[in-house]
Amino acid sequence: MKPKVYIASDHAGFVKKNKLAELLSKEYQVVDLGPEELNPEDDYPVFAERIGNAVVEDPGSLGIIMCKSGEGAAMAANKIDGVRAALVWQPHLAVETRSDNDSNVLALPADELSLSDLSEIIDKFLTTPFSGAERHKRRIAEIEQIENEQTGTIE
User: Fold this and answer.
1) Residue 109 contacts by C-beta under 8 Å, 6 or more apart in sequence?
2) Domain range for residue 107?
3) Contact 54, 8 (CB under 8 A)
4) Higher pLDDT, 147 or 114
């Protein structure tokens, strides 16, 4: 079975999201969480929440969320317990956030990157495994501890 990838955007990333979903579907089971049609008035938190919830409820899956700068989408996704969303704009950062932080959501700046650049970053994110290094496991546990103290227990 193909690995599962959830993808969504707001209006700023709508066209690129659709093209990327089509490209990714050749190697991955892609689940498009919206929007289904372009709405210049939609808001990224709605889609970031969908991505975050989907990834947390489906262990082993990864998520991709786009908005104009990627910043708001990352902030919103990170409000979901268990999400480790990373704003990435360079391929080497996609590798580092997966390898070191075991990030499960990739936030991208739709207005700042070409389709080719986005595709390269996504490829690095989806193909880089978590290193499992003890120092990184410890840091992730520390993040989860903060999350638990603030919002409750991660199951």
Assistant:
1) 66, 67, 68, 69, 70, 71, 87, 89
2) 4-151
3) no
4) 114
